What we know:
4-stranded antiparallel sheet
Amino acid sequence: MQSNTATPRLPGYVIGPVSGVTKYYAVTTTPFAGVYTEWSTVSVLFKRFPDLGFEKFSTYSAARDAVEGARVTNDLIDLVSGMNLTDTPSPPPYTTPPSAPNSPPTQAPRSQPPSSPPAPSVPGAGSGAVYDVEFGGWTSVDDDGDKWGWEADAQTWSDIDRAEAVEAATRASAPVANLAPVIRPVRSARPPRGGWPIYAVLRGRQTGLFFSSTDCDQQVKGFPNGVGFGFRTIAEAEDWLAINGYTV
C-alpha cells in the first residue's frame, strides 16, 4: 500500500482513485513521490526541479504501481551503493601535519556576504531602492512617505504600508484569544535571487506549502492573524511548521 508519510501535502496529491478523474500523474522523485491529479502541481515541480521523474496514466492503480516500482528500484540502488564489493583496503585517514615551531596559526579567509541583485526601477521619484533583509528583497519610499516592496515573482512593486495597515486593521477587529505565540524562523542568510523557492503558511485561508510569494500572500494577507514565511528548502519549511505545532 502506498504511504504518504514522506511526501509533502501538495495540491492534487491523492492516496486513492478519484471519481470522474481519468488523468493520474505518477511522480517518482523523492521527496515528492506519489500520485497527483493536478497537472498544475506537477508542472510547477518540473519547472523547479528539471530532473523530476513523472508519467501520466489513465487509472490510479497504474500510477500507484509506477511509484511503488520506482521506490523499490531506488531502495535497491541505495543498498548496492552502500556495499563494499571489493577487497581493496580503505586508505588511512588523512591527518593534518603539525605546524612548524613558532609559526603563526593559519586563519581561514572570511567569507564575503553575497552581493544584492541589481535594483529595479523605483516608482515615482522616491529616495532610491535599498535591499531589505527582513523583507527579503528591494524596498523603496516614495515622495508621500509610503514604503514599497519589489515582488520578484510578479515583477511589480506593492505598497507595503497599505498592505500592513489593512492587515493590522483586520487583526485588530478579529478575536485573538487562545492564539499561541508564533516562533519566527531564524534567518542565517539573505533569500536567493528571485525570492524564496518554498513558502509555508501557518495561519491563513489555506495552510501548508506553496511555491510562490503570490500564492502565500493570497492565503495570509487580509486573513485574521495570518502567518507565512519563505524558506530555502521544503525541510526547513516543514521544520518551522512543526515547531509551531503544525504538521504538513
